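ARCHIVE CARD
Drawer: 12
Card no.: 0347
Subject: one protein chain, sequence and derived structure
Cross-reference: see card 0346
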Amino acid sequence: QVHLVESGGGLVQPGGSLRLSCVASGRTFSNYAMGWFRQAPGKEREFVAAISWEGKSTYYGDSVKGRFTNSRDNAKNTLYLQMNSLKPEDTAVYYCAASRVSGLTTLIQEYDYWGQGTQVTVSS
């Protein structure tokens, strides 16, 4: 079992920055690929970013590429999503997730564990 807890969400101005954190319980954090998804009201859950077990490979959804940076600190069992140049369309509940699939995956069904989500609101 993996318990994931997101934090760092909140209200931010357009163009601003925010860093989300996801802390995983247990000692097997480094064995999982990790990802971020988001879901806005009335929308399906959308892939945001993924990172490999060792943190050397990352992949981003087209809507956030160049603005968001995914990283992990396995010693701290923590996943980070640095979000820069935020836009109102980034407003959503953000979820971190863990997958045992090798490499990277953008598919919801390939993620085994999910956090509770943290609200990010980008507004003036």
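Annotation on reverse: The radius of gyration is 13 Å. The first strand starts at residue 4 and ends at 7.
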